[in-house]
Amino acid sequence: MAFVSAEDCPLQPKDGRQEAGPIGWHRARRIARKMNSSLDYANEFMPSIYAAPVFKTLLCARKELLSPRQKAEIKKYSKLIRIDQGVVVYEEGEEASYVWNIARGLIETYHLLPQGTRRITSFLFPGDLLGLMENGFYVSTARTVQPVIAFQIPIQVLSELALSDSQLSAALLTKLCQDLREAQRHIICISQKDAAPRLATFILWLCTIYGNDVEPPKELSLPLARHQIAEYLGLTTESVSRAFHLLESSKAIMRRTPRLISILDMEKLRSFSTLEVGAGILS
Length: 283
Hints:
283 residues; Arc Repressor Mutant, subunit A; 4-stranded antiparallel sheet; 22% strand
Protein backbone atom coordinates (compact mmCIF):
# COMPACT_ATOMS: atom_id res chain seq x y z
CA MET A 1 0.00 0.00 0.00
CA ALA A 2 1.32 3.39 -0.96
CA PHE A 3 0.32 6.89 -0.02
CA VAL A 4 0.26 10.11 -1.97
CA SER A 5 3.56 11.86 -1.49
CA ALA A 6 5.15 14.97 -2.92
CA GLU A 7 7.16 12.81 -5.29
CA ASP A 8 3.99 11.15 -6.61
CA CYS A 9 2.25 14.46 -7.34
CA PRO A 10 2.40 16.31 -10.66
CA LEU A 11 5.34 18.64 -11.01
CA GLN A 12 4.80 21.93 -9.24
CA PRO A 13 4.26 24.78 -11.71
CA LYS A 14 7.10 27.28 -11.71
CA ASP A 15 4.72 30.22 -11.42
CA GLY A 16 3.08 28.76 -8.33
CA ARG A 17 -0.30 28.21 -9.95
CA GLN A 18 -2.18 24.96 -9.41
CA GLU A 19 -1.65 22.58 -12.29
CA ALA A 20 -4.51 20.49 -13.64
CA GLY A 21 -4.27 16.87 -12.57
CA PRO A 22 -6.16 14.11 -10.78
CA ILE A 23 -6.25 16.10 -7.53
CA GLY A 24 -3.93 19.01 -8.27
CA TRP A 25 -0.44 19.59 -6.88
CA HIS A 26 -1.41 21.73 -3.89
CA ARG A 27 -4.33 19.47 -2.98
CA ALA A 28 -2.10 16.40 -3.21
CA ARG A 29 0.55 18.04 -0.99
CA ARG A 30 -2.08 18.73 1.66
CA ILE A 31 -3.43 15.19 1.39
CA ALA A 32 0.08 13.75 1.61
CA ARG A 33 0.82 15.61 4.85
CA LYS A 34 -2.37 14.31 6.47
CA MET A 35 -1.90 10.73 5.28
CA ASN A 36 1.75 10.54 6.26
CA SER A 37 0.84 11.58 9.79
CA SER A 38 -1.74 8.77 10.05
CA LEU A 39 0.06 5.70 8.71
CA ASP A 40 -1.20 3.57 11.59
CA TYR A 41 -4.71 3.26 10.18
CA ALA A 42 -3.67 2.20 6.68
CA ASN A 43 -4.46 -1.44 7.38
CA GLU A 44 -7.98 -0.62 8.56
CA PHE A 45 -9.20 -0.18 4.97
CA MET A 46 -9.63 -2.55 2.06
CA PRO A 47 -11.14 -1.91 -1.37
CA SER A 48 -14.86 -2.63 -1.35
CA ILE A 49 -17.58 -2.39 -3.99
CA TYR A 50 -21.24 -2.63 -2.97
CA ALA A 51 -24.29 -3.01 -5.21
CA ALA A 52 -27.68 -4.68 -5.26
CA PRO A 53 -27.75 -7.97 -7.21
CA VAL A 54 -28.85 -7.99 -10.84
CA PHE A 55 -30.40 -11.44 -10.83
CA LYS A 56 -33.14 -12.77 -8.55
CA THR A 57 -31.86 -13.67 -5.10
CA LEU A 58 -33.09 -13.90 -1.52
CA LEU A 59 -30.78 -11.02 -0.63
CA CYS A 60 -32.03 -7.69 -1.97
CA ALA A 61 -29.82 -5.13 -0.22
CA ARG A 62 -26.48 -3.88 -1.46
CA LYS A 63 -23.82 -6.52 -0.92
CA GLU A 64 -20.06 -6.83 -1.22
CA LEU A 65 -19.04 -7.75 -4.78
CA LEU A 66 -15.30 -8.28 -4.29
CA SER A 67 -13.66 -11.46 -3.01
CA PRO A 68 -10.77 -11.25 -0.51
CA ARG A 69 -8.36 -12.05 -3.35
CA GLN A 70 -9.73 -9.28 -5.55
CA LYS A 71 -9.56 -6.79 -2.68
CA ALA A 72 -5.91 -7.65 -2.06
CA GLU A 73 -5.10 -7.39 -5.78
CA ILE A 74 -6.70 -3.94 -6.13
CA LYS A 75 -5.10 -2.74 -2.92
CA LYS A 76 -1.69 -3.84 -4.21
CA TYR A 77 -1.90 -1.45 -7.17
CA SER A 78 -3.73 1.41 -5.42
CA LYS A 79 -2.84 4.39 -3.28
CA LEU A 80 -4.82 5.05 -0.14
CA ILE A 81 -5.41 8.80 0.09
CA ARG A 82 -7.24 11.17 2.38
CA ILE A 83 -8.97 14.19 0.83
CA ASP A 84 -10.20 17.14 2.87
CA GLN A 85 -13.79 18.30 2.89
CA GLY A 86 -14.68 20.72 0.11
CA VAL A 87 -11.87 19.64 -2.23
CA VAL A 88 -12.49 19.25 -5.97
CA VAL A 89 -11.18 15.80 -6.88
CA TYR A 90 -11.47 16.43 -10.61
CA GLU A 91 -13.27 18.82 -12.92
CA GLU A 92 -15.64 18.22 -15.80
CA GLY A 93 -13.67 17.82 -19.04
CA GLU A 94 -10.42 16.94 -17.27
CA GLU A 95 -8.45 14.06 -18.75
CA ALA A 96 -9.20 10.86 -16.82
CA SER A 97 -6.32 8.97 -15.24
CA TYR A 98 -7.82 7.37 -12.13
CA VAL A 99 -10.95 5.96 -10.57
CA TRP A 100 -11.50 6.11 -6.81
CA ASN A 101 -13.00 3.47 -4.56
CA ILE A 102 -14.47 5.30 -1.57
CA ALA A 103 -13.65 3.75 1.81
CA ARG A 104 -14.99 6.54 4.04
CA GLY A 105 -16.80 9.82 3.53
CA LEU A 106 -19.09 11.27 0.88
CA ILE A 107 -18.52 12.80 -2.57
CA GLU A 108 -20.89 14.71 -4.84
CA THR A 109 -20.72 15.03 -8.62
CA TYR A 110 -22.28 17.97 -10.42
CA HIS A 111 -22.50 20.00 -13.60
CA LEU A 112 -22.19 23.77 -13.79
CA LEU A 113 -25.04 25.17 -15.86
CA PRO A 114 -24.52 28.13 -18.24
CA GLN A 115 -26.18 30.54 -15.77
CA GLY A 116 -23.62 29.54 -13.14
CA THR A 117 -25.83 27.33 -10.97
CA ARG A 118 -24.93 23.77 -10.01
CA ARG A 119 -26.93 20.66 -10.77
CA ILE A 120 -25.92 17.77 -8.52
CA THR A 121 -25.99 14.48 -10.43
CA SER A 122 -25.01 11.96 -7.76
CA PHE A 123 -23.75 11.32 -4.25
CA LEU A 124 -21.19 8.57 -3.72
CA PHE A 125 -20.79 6.63 -0.50
CA PRO A 126 -18.34 4.03 0.87
CA GLY A 127 -18.35 1.05 -1.48
CA ASP A 128 -18.92 3.24 -4.54
CA LEU A 129 -16.63 3.92 -7.49
CA LEU A 130 -15.93 7.50 -8.57
CA GLY A 131 -14.69 8.52 -12.01
CA LEU A 132 -17.40 8.37 -14.67
CA MET A 133 -15.78 9.23 -17.99
CA GLU A 134 -16.41 9.41 -21.71
CA ASN A 135 -13.76 9.13 -24.39
CA GLY A 136 -11.01 9.55 -21.78
CA PHE A 137 -12.43 12.62 -20.00
CA TYR A 138 -14.45 13.01 -16.80
CA VAL A 139 -18.07 13.92 -17.54
CA SER A 140 -18.75 15.92 -14.36
CA THR A 141 -16.99 17.67 -11.49
CA ALA A 142 -16.44 15.70 -8.27
CA ARG A 143 -16.13 17.38 -4.86
CA THR A 144 -15.86 15.98 -1.35
CA VAL A 145 -18.85 16.69 0.91
CA GLN A 146 -17.10 15.13 3.91
CA PRO A 147 -13.44 14.22 4.50
CA VAL A 148 -12.83 11.20 2.30
CA ILE A 149 -10.51 8.21 2.44
CA ALA A 150 -10.33 6.40 -0.88
CA PHE A 151 -8.26 4.02 -2.95
CA GLN A 152 -6.91 5.82 -6.01
CA ILE A 153 -6.71 3.26 -8.82
CA PRO A 154 -5.06 3.89 -12.21
CA ILE A 155 -7.61 3.28 -14.95
CA GLN A 156 -5.20 1.15 -16.95
CA VAL A 157 -4.54 -1.09 -13.94
CA LEU A 158 -8.25 -1.63 -13.23
CA SER A 159 -8.84 -2.37 -16.91
CA GLU A 160 -6.08 -4.98 -16.98
CA LEU A 161 -7.30 -6.60 -13.76
CA ALA A 162 -10.83 -6.81 -15.19
CA LEU A 163 -9.58 -8.34 -18.44
CA SER A 164 -7.73 -11.06 -16.53
CA ASP A 165 -10.53 -11.77 -14.04
CA SER A 166 -14.02 -12.50 -15.39
CA GLN A 167 -15.53 -12.38 -11.89
CA LEU A 168 -14.16 -8.88 -11.37
CA SER A 169 -15.59 -7.87 -14.75
CA ALA A 170 -18.98 -9.21 -13.65
CA ALA A 171 -18.71 -7.27 -10.37
CA LEU A 172 -17.95 -4.04 -12.21
CA LEU A 173 -20.88 -4.66 -14.56
CA THR A 174 -23.17 -5.23 -11.56
CA LYS A 175 -21.97 -1.96 -10.06
CA LEU A 176 -22.56 -0.17 -13.36
CA CYS A 177 -26.14 -1.51 -13.42
CA GLN A 178 -26.63 -0.20 -9.88
CA ASP A 179 -25.41 3.26 -10.89
CA LEU A 180 -27.66 3.23 -13.96
CA ARG A 181 -30.70 2.30 -11.86
CA GLU A 182 -29.97 5.08 -9.39
CA ALA A 183 -29.55 7.61 -12.19
CA GLN A 184 -32.93 6.58 -13.65
CA ARG A 185 -34.60 6.84 -10.25
CA HIS A 186 -33.12 10.27 -9.71
CA ILE A 187 -34.52 11.49 -13.05
CA ILE A 188 -37.99 10.18 -12.19
CA CYS A 189 -37.69 11.51 -8.64
CA ILE A 190 -37.05 15.13 -9.66
CA SER A 191 -39.80 14.91 -12.29
CA GLN A 192 -42.38 14.54 -9.50
CA LYS A 193 -44.39 17.74 -9.10
CA ASP A 194 -44.47 18.12 -5.32
CA ALA A 195 -41.59 18.37 -2.86
CA ALA A 196 -42.82 15.73 -0.38
CA PRO A 197 -42.70 12.82 -2.88
CA ARG A 198 -39.18 13.86 -3.92
CA LEU A 199 -38.02 14.00 -0.31
CA ALA A 200 -39.71 10.70 0.57
CA THR A 201 -37.99 9.02 -2.39
CA PHE A 202 -34.65 10.48 -1.28
CA ILE A 203 -35.10 9.18 2.29
CA LEU A 204 -36.09 5.74 1.00
CA TRP A 205 -32.96 5.70 -1.16
CA LEU A 206 -30.81 6.47 1.88
CA CYS A 207 -32.54 3.60 3.70
CA THR A 208 -31.38 1.19 0.98
CA ILE A 209 -27.81 2.40 1.46
CA TYR A 210 -27.76 2.18 5.25
CA GLY A 211 -30.23 -0.70 5.62
CA ASN A 212 -29.91 -4.48 5.30
CA ASP A 213 -31.98 -7.50 4.30
CA VAL A 214 -33.28 -8.06 7.82
CA GLU A 215 -35.02 -4.75 8.43
CA PRO A 216 -34.84 -1.10 7.37
CA PRO A 217 -33.11 1.35 9.68
CA LYS A 218 -35.18 2.71 12.57
CA GLU A 219 -33.10 5.90 12.61
CA LEU A 220 -31.37 7.63 9.73
CA SER A 221 -28.50 10.06 10.03
CA LEU A 222 -28.72 12.45 7.11
CA PRO A 223 -25.24 12.95 5.62
CA LEU A 224 -26.25 16.19 3.88
CA ALA A 225 -27.28 19.67 4.91
CA ARG A 226 -30.74 20.93 3.98
CA HIS A 227 -29.43 23.07 1.08
CA GLN A 228 -27.53 20.09 -0.39
CA ILE A 229 -30.67 17.95 -0.33
CA ALA A 230 -32.49 20.82 -2.05
CA GLU A 231 -29.86 21.03 -4.80
CA TYR A 232 -30.02 17.28 -5.41
CA LEU A 233 -33.83 17.25 -5.57
CA GLY A 234 -34.13 20.40 -7.68
CA LEU A 235 -35.96 22.28 -4.91
CA THR A 236 -35.47 25.35 -2.77
CA THR A 237 -34.31 24.96 0.82
CA GLU A 238 -37.69 26.31 1.96
CA SER A 239 -39.52 23.63 -0.06
CA VAL A 240 -37.41 20.91 1.56
CA SER A 241 -38.22 22.29 5.01
CA ARG A 242 -41.94 22.26 4.22
CA ALA A 243 -41.67 18.70 2.86
CA PHE A 244 -39.97 17.56 6.07
CA HIS A 245 -42.81 19.16 8.05
CA LEU A 246 -45.43 17.38 5.93
CA LEU A 247 -43.78 13.96 6.34
CA GLU A 248 -43.47 14.58 10.06
CA SER A 249 -47.06 15.78 10.51
CA SER A 250 -48.23 12.61 8.71
CA LYS A 251 -46.24 10.60 11.28
CA ALA A 252 -44.11 8.93 8.62
CA ILE A 253 -40.92 10.32 10.20
CA MET A 254 -39.82 12.29 13.25
CA ARG A 255 -36.96 14.80 13.26
CA ARG A 256 -34.86 14.33 16.39
CA THR A 257 -32.13 16.74 15.31
CA PRO A 258 -31.56 18.65 12.04
CA ARG A 259 -29.51 15.67 10.79
CA LEU A 260 -31.20 12.73 12.58
CA ILE A 261 -34.65 11.36 11.77
CA SER A 262 -36.63 8.37 13.04
CA ILE A 263 -38.60 6.26 10.57
CA LEU A 264 -41.99 5.87 12.26
CA ASP A 265 -44.01 4.28 9.45
CA MET A 266 -42.18 2.87 6.45
CA GLU A 267 -45.38 2.09 4.53
CA LYS A 268 -46.64 5.62 4.99
CA LEU A 269 -43.30 6.99 3.84
CA ARG A 270 -43.46 4.78 0.76
CA SER A 271 -46.98 5.97 0.03
CA PHE A 272 -45.60 9.47 -0.58
CA SER A 273 -43.20 8.18 -3.23
CA THR A 274 -44.27 7.09 -6.70
CA LEU A 275 -41.18 4.90 -7.01
CA GLU A 276 -40.48 1.40 -5.72
CA VAL A 277 -37.13 2.15 -4.09
CA GLY A 278 -35.48 -0.92 -2.58
CA ALA A 279 -38.81 -2.68 -2.06
CA GLY A 280 -37.04 -5.88 -1.10
CA ILE A 281 -35.62 -4.45 2.10
CA LEU A 282 -38.21 -1.78 2.82
CA SER A 283 -41.29 -3.99 2.86
